[in-house]
Amino acid sequence: MKAIVLNRAIHPPTMELREVASPQIGKKQVLIRVAACGVCHHDLLVMQGILRRGVKPNVILGHEISGTVVSCGELVNSLQPGDHVTTLLRDVCGTCVMCTTRRPDECLESLGIGHEVDGGFAEYIAVTEESAIKLQPDTDLYQASLYSCPIGIALKGIKYAGQVKPGEPVVITGASGGLGIHAIQIARASGCTVIAMTTSAKKVSSLETFNPDWVFHIDDLEFSHLVRGVTEDQGAAVVFDVLGSKGFISSLLSLRENGRLLMMGDIDGSLAEFRPAEVVFRNLQIIGVSGIEKSLVAEVENMVQAGLVSPAIDQVFPFSDFNEAFRLLTERRNVGRIVLVPD
Predict the structure, then answer these.
(1) What is the dotted CATH code of the domain comprising 2-146+311-341?
(2) Is 150-288 CATH 3.40.50.1370?
(3) Tens-digit pLDDT profile for residues 101-123
(4) Of 59, 87, 88, 94, which residue is most buried, by most CB within 10 angstroms?
(5) Are 221 and 246 in contact (CB under 8 A)?
(6) What is the pLDDT of residues 215-239, one digit of tens each?
(7) Do residues 88 and 292 lie in contact, with contact meaning Cβ atoms separated by under 8 Å?
(8) Which H or E run contains 329?
(9) What is the phi/psi pair of residue 274, to 5°?
(10) Upper half-sphere CA count for residue 33 (Cβ side, 13 Å)
């Protein structure tokens, strides 16, 4: 099969599209013909050597996967050839205490797809039955590649970690990226007042089509005064932050009393300094959000079918044009997700 292989993680990375052996499935696994795979900022961090821990040598990246089951191991019961599926972000065992208590995102034996094991930048991928999620037969598989990440992660952050309530002001940083642009839609569907932040003036008009209440272009990643200005100096109930250390202080200062800071990502892995007293005496919460479970993906599918969320795909590239896709992502020219598909 053809796959995009990361030979050397550096900036710029050394990658190639080449023939590799097709995966062989075990008794509890399924083989999936990949239809589409979204390109996440996590992939970029691995490619550039910023994320190194646990990365498989010569890894095939990609964890935002959709496709069709082509074969099943003899102990697989819930799936059959021809089923449309997406996958979890980690290949889970299905038998540990976390999996059996419906917390597969905390599986004790899981391996990161496209990180510790090969991912979806390939024509085929093998995962456990428990890691594949059956979709409706008429599902748009390009769109479905985004159901787990970024849409499911955004839903987990806004609705469950953030516990948002109608009318609450919600700030979304990195609003034009995959996480941010879907967080806007989910916060809107939840009845929140949405304040979107982007570092690109050229993306403001595109973001306005998703109907946030406010869109701000920020040059220096200091935006707390803007948030205070549109909330009558009260601050936001929730900040959905994909910037990490770069915007950490502004995110904290943007929060009102009892506010929640959702840490959804970190664009460069640098350190952030802050005064703990700022958190203690204002009763703030700092919450890290990652991982996905099947129930969230089912909720995403329902929201898409109801028209509450529209998967935002900027461009689709064949595997053979992967360099162009990664160039656009590196230069942050995309609004929404870039998706790769087999040639």
Answers:
(1) 3.90.180.10
(2) no
(3) 888 888 999 999 999 999 999 99
(4) 87
(5) yes
(6) 999 987 899 999 999 999 999 999 9
(7) yes
(8) helix 322-330
(9) -155, 165
(10) 11
